[in-house]
């Protein structure tokens, strides 16, 4: 998994029906020092995360194991809001 | 998932029979400021997207969960046309 | 999926028995202008592609959905010969 | 799989219920000479690894095959503590 | 799949029980001209490959389809020893 922060939202009307009601968020992967990485992902929020919160993002087929994503055509899901992370180099 | 825009089409006659009738589009991943990323993907359109529209693209095994792709040998699918996306840096 | 061209072949005698009879080709991903990308892949041909033809290559678990690859330990398959591709920047 | 060393921990209260009780560690991929690679991963420890130990990390759907991870939304797992590794260039 | 050469071994005592008896090798991806690529992988040998032999390496979920790897938490497997490979640029 990676650590990311929530930047924004994607609005789509014409879409796969299994995406109905899903919250599609734009997330930005961050480094351990809190700085942004390049790039972004569109990820399904499954835990009710808020803007600019730091979150845990899972990718690939495991995104379909997140709550509510069974059999959905999604490859990225937010599975946790991060309280804190600690590390020693 | 990623955000991409539709650039073109791929025509193939000699192909896996499960690709029959599928619309294979060339899509270009874009950055959040709308600029192009390098690279491209060949992706199956499952939502009737139009040229130069911005779309949501799913990759990996989840592309087979998109409408009509069950058991198809595809690793990328267009699953939504984007109306808008908003973000705050 | 990606677009690649066929460069060569790999010969292996001592191998997983489910690779018996499979044609293992070396393919080189190309850019939309026809130029080579760096890198290469070893991919199972499932459509009878010829040397230097441009082909569609699928990766990951979906390579096992290509004709004849069921339950095979392969992560890349050629699933179509490209007649043409068109795009507008 | 890759070789990584354990740097730290991630604490998350608001999360997918299948992550309850899982130890989420921050791991840093290393090169064969022992130096750090860039980047990091959040990985589920399934073998009781200790801080700064060198470990084997598996990614993708196979992370769900690690002990205790069945049907969990995780894409990275620590599956072994490394005693030693040897190589000749 | 990719072409790699075998560099060394990884020894791990404290590990997932489904790794018991598996030979974990360090492999280095190579270019078509035989030169080394950067990086390395830890891969399960399933074909009895020898040191410095050139091998075919499969990644992702398909590594679990290699002989003996069913339901194992592995994402890379050696599935063939390469006799030769030929290509024309």
How are the elements arranged and paired?
5 copies of one chain form a homopentamer.
Chain A: E1 2-11, E2 24-29, E3 41-45, E4 54-59, E5 76-81, E6 84-87
Parallel strand pairs in A: 3-5
Antiparallel strand pairs in A: 1-2, 1-4, 2-3, 4-5
Provide structural commentary.
- The structure is a homopentamer of 89-residue chains.
- By secondary structure, chain A is an all-beta fold.
- Helices cover 0% and strands 42% of the residues of chain A.
- Chain A has strands at 2-11, 24-29, 41-45, 54-59, 76-81, 84-87.
- The first copy, chain A, has a 5-stranded mixed barrel.
- The radius of gyration of chain A is 13 Å and the shape is globular.
- Chains in contact: A-B, A-D, B-C, C-E, D-E.
- The interface between A and D is medium-sized, with 32 and 31 residues.
- What's the shape of chain A? globular
Strand order of the largest sheet of chain A: 1-2-3-5-4
The low-pLDDT segments of chain A are none
Greatest chain-chain interface?
A: A-B, 31 and 32 residues
What is the assigned CATH homologous superfamily of chain A? EutN/Ccml
Instruction: Kindly give the count of domains of chain A.
Output: 1
Tell me what the CATH architecture of chain A is. Answer: Beta Barrel
Order of helices and strands of chain A: EEEEEE
Determine the N-to-C terminus distance of chain A.
19 Å
- Output mean pLDDT of chain A: 97
Structural class by secondary-structure content of chain A: mainly beta
Q: What is the strand content of chain A?
A: 35-45%
Report the helical percentage of chain A.
Answer: under 10%
Separate helix tally of chain A: 0
Biggest sheet record of chain A? 5 strands, mixed, barrel
Number of strands of chain A: 6
Rg calculated over all Cα atoms of chain A: 13 Å
CATH class of chain A: Mainly Beta
**Oligomer status:** homopentamer
Assign the CATH topology of chain A: OB fold (Dihydrolipoamide Acetyltransferase, E2P)
């Amino acid at each position: 998994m990676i650590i990311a922060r929530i930047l924004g939202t994607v609005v789509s009307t014409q879409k796969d029906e299994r995406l109905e009601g899903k919250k599609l968020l734009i997330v930005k992967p961050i480094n351990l020092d809190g700085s942004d990485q390049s790039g972004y992902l569109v990820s399904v929020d499954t835990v009710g995360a808020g803007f600019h919160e730091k979150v845990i993002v899972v990718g690939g087929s495991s995104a379909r194991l997140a709550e509510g994503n069974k059999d959905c055509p999604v490859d990225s899901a937010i599975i946790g809001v991060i309280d804190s992370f600690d590390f020693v180099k």
